[in-house]
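tool=predict chain=A
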Amino acid sequence: AAAKPATALAAAAVPAAVAVPAKQCNRDHSKVLTTDDVLCRVPKGELAFVTLANQAYGEMAVNWALLLLPMLERLGHGDRAVIAGMDQSGVDLFLKHRLPTVTTASFGGIAWNSDHKGSMDGFRWKNGAFRAYGVTKAEVVLWLLRAGRDVSISDVDVAWIAPPYALLRSVPDADVLSGTDCLNVPYDADRSPRKSNVRNCGHQSGSTWSAWFNTGVMFFRARPAAVDMMEEWRDTMAEIKGEAQVDDQLSFNQLVGTVGASGRHAPKFRRFYPLKPASEDGRVVYDGNGSRRIHAIPVSQVCSAHVFHVQQSAEPRGCLVLHLTFVEGWPKNPAKYWRLREAGMLPVRPEPFDQRYLSFTPPQPGPTPPERREPAPARAG
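tool=predict ok
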């Protein structure tokens, strides 16, 4: 039987009250939504789901929406997700699929940025353009936070499996929640205070190194501390010029204090370690600024492709999302499509896959050449 998309985990993940959409909000997805339309559709104090994409990565963004929107609609929250289109051809693609779309033209989208107009196709590999994308992402998140909306921001290579509401309720002290690159699930599950850790998994209080964050899946609460962190993140990226190899993820880890940095972020590394608890259970810690509280989401909930496919044999288990990290390929990473197909989470290109056999039509040989007979060699004498 063909693999079916993973379903929502449990009733505990559903918010206590199912929202009733406001009748007057714009739901015409054949046209670009205004910022006011989006704020109408997401009530103040509730969670908005956002991704950013251009046409080059548009198919992945469509897939992101085709997985997320039905999940939210079952909860009465179908109005609460939007794609922020970074170029006109991307916007046109999303509208063709009748997906909720805003444009980043007013947020500094790179297609409307004179320094990066020619960097749209494969801009992930162009440092300046990709950092400009990070600035745009920060501006979009700031707009929603300042309007009193909590924000879920995730990359287009994210496949939503279950709603994150129970996760958010479990860490009320956190201003910011972020995924990580940890691969050791049992170690990561134990957040008891201790100094020792394994690479990329040092997120427990008392840890003295390697508390790396992955910015592909993040949540921000509409609080002054989160706004302050996002403003600093935006400014850090905007100040870097040229093709310096500093992207949004590295700059975030520098401002948190995860890794050493020069300039104004230099003291944060020394203040961040050892990690200091910001909640009674130690699952929330202070960043290097000492005033902002961050939760490293367990790798069993924001699952990398290594955890999901290699360690769990493509079983969702406790994963809220599959983030397709630790997947390599070129160009535009076709291996990510293969992994989504294996998981039954590629509605943009529906194709049965039973997780046991791969079927294909082998190339056929050409016409058989005529038989050739070599003359017998002449015999001496």
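The longest helix spans residues 127-146. The two ends are 73 Å apart (CA to CA).
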